[in-house]
Amino acid sequence: MIARLCVALAALLGATAAWGADLMWGVNGHPFTAYPGISFARQLDFVRDLGMKSYRVNISTADDIPELAALVEQARARDIDILPVITPDLDLDAETAGDLYAKSYAMAVAMVSRFKDDIRVWELGNELENYAILTACEMRDDGIQYDCSWGPAGGDGPGHYFTPRWKQVSAVLRGLSDGTASVDPTIRKAIGTAGWGHTGAFERMIADGIDWDISVWHHYGADLKQPLDYLKTLGKPIWVTEFNHSSEKGEQAQADGLLEMMTLLRGYRQDYPIEAAHIYELLDEPYWAPSFEAVMGLVRLRKTDKGAWTPDGVKLAYGVAKAFIAAGGSSVAVPQSPAQTSQPASADPVPPAAGCDTGSLNTAVVNHANQVAYFYCLALNRLPNPTEQWRQALAMKQGRTVAEMMASVLETPEFSKVNGREEATNAAYIAAIYRRLLGREPDGRGLSDYLSRLDGNQMTREELALEAVGSQEFRSLHSFLFAQVPVP
């Protein structure tokens, strides 16, 4: 295997640059948040030795601006550009879209203003669309509940994102984009996704009026041609800011996989506007073990006796990347991307008829979103819209009880209207509540007891409904509502 690699590398080193200018090759690192003990200079010396021209680094707070300034200065001395990725340290669950926009805007202004003469490309956000991908039991924009038995949506269509969460993502991206443009509209803004088919996020961004100059894609072994075909239609340059092959199955496998990917990317630049490609990542992060992210680096790390980290030799993939970049072009045949297995397009579920049947919902999956959908169906004879479901589920995630969630629904004017509260007599209202929540007619004793209390102003109609959902009979009939939600 090693002999075969050497032959391939020899061919690369002897090839001419017949294809014109090569990609700008770069690598990822975490100089502000990881591997204490390894200086900026040591990291940048590796980047320069690899023949790379760009170091992609994450920055989450304006507090890191002084360190970024030091990194930029040392990178300039080595003819290396820094590609900062602004990854705002924000709470997308708790903050409003307005607050998220304002904070993101301010963050971009603070960072870009400081470096507008030194950094001319900024990547805004990192894989933020993952936060908004539809998951089990959530409500789609068309009013259909996403199947509780399915995994997360594929992300290749705009309808694969949960709108309440997407609004949070959109607010951050718009804030970063608008803030950057306010400093200098000629600075290039790079925005994209985690790859894995998430092209639908770009359609969402276009619909929201988010402005960007470079489309970002991440590539980890899936078919690359299909997303490139889509990204090409957007009419913007493409930067693949993360790609690699883990050494989880051995350093030889990583070197083979990396060589194949770099060859594929270099070949694709003839047909697609790919400008840059960044390997993920420069240094191993062994503290993530047993996750594959522990061994994604081109350089091994080991811990010192003092608790810091130090390089522990380069991997075979390091030499492969260095030789490939030095070649500047390749006459080696470009591997064909594996044929993608075609999947029959599934038709959208038929919208439900008027009304809602809890028996048609999948109660095998216990989560807050599904419990909210179940109770809306039961109490209001409809499924919640995405915003209602998200707000209720988020409140439950943050400590709201099932009883409090149900009370908030029972106290709405809509619940009163559905059950004829305004027009019905006390007796008719009692019967409606029994049918709606307990699935039966009231027995004689229950009817007379509640009727006496209502007629005597000893309880309100809202209290009647709350008492019904607090009964043991209700808990037995609808045990799904009270099932323990697994901790992620």
UniProtKB/TrEMBL annotation:
Record keywords: Signal
- Where would I find the DUF4214 domain in this sequence? 407-476
Q: Which InterPro entries match?
A: Asl1_glyco_hydro_catalytic, DUF4214, GH, PBS_linker_sf
For the keyword Transmembrane helix, the answer is no
| Domain Asl1-like glycosyl hydrolase catalytic, chain residue ranges per copy | 166-255
> Which superkingdom, per the lineage?
Bacteria
**Where does the record locate the signal sequence feature?**
1-20
Q: Which Pfam families match?
A: DUF4214 (PF13946), Glyco_hydro_cc (PF11790)
Query: Is the keyword Magnesium in the record?
Result: no
Write down what this protein is called: DUF4214 domain-containing protein
Native organism: Aquamicrobium terrae
